[in-house]
Design goal:
The structure is a single chain. With about 100 residues, the chain is mainly alpha-helical. The chain has two domains: about 45 residues, no CATH class; about 30 residues. The chain is built from three helices and four strands, in the order ββββααα. The strands form two sheets. It has a two-stranded antiparallel ribbon with strand order 1-2. A two-stranded antiparallel ribbon has the order 3-4. Strand 1 and strand 2 form a beta hairpin. The longest helix has about 35 residues. It is elongated. The chain starts with a strand and ends in a 7-residue tail after the last helix. The model has no long low-confidence stretch (mean pLDDT about 95).
């Protein structure tokens, strides 16, 4: 159990983010408070958040590589389902007379 330095509630250790996972140290503020602060900061200055995100994307090619791999995996995981959905929608629109065939 640990007390959050922001909301001063006593919470279990699992409610705190890791500061250094290798050492097992946790942050002083609970995850709820940290998430709320991050959300408020993003809402207060969304342009700064966008600048940071773009700079991180630009300066970290290994992150781009992993992100692209995840996108490819997601695409192929859902590929057949999307094709079937498109076929079904096409058939429904054709039956409804929305698609003209020559």
């Amino acid at each position: 159990m640990r007390e959050c330095t922001v909301c001063h509630q006593v919470k279990p250790l699992e409610a705190f983010h890791f500061k250094d996972k290798a050492k097992g140290t946790r942050t002083a503020a609970c995850a709820e408070c940290r998430n709320a602060k991050a959300r408020a900061d993003r809402e207060k200055d969304p342009d700064a958040y966008r600048r940071y995100s773009r700079a991180y994307w630009k300066n970290n090619p290994e992150y781009r590589f992993r992100a692209n791999l995840r996108k490819q995996a997601d695409y192929w995981e859902n590929h057949e389902r999307e094709l079937q959905r498109n076929r079904d929608n096409y058939r429904k629109r054709k039956e409804a007379g929305c698609i003209c065939t020559n």
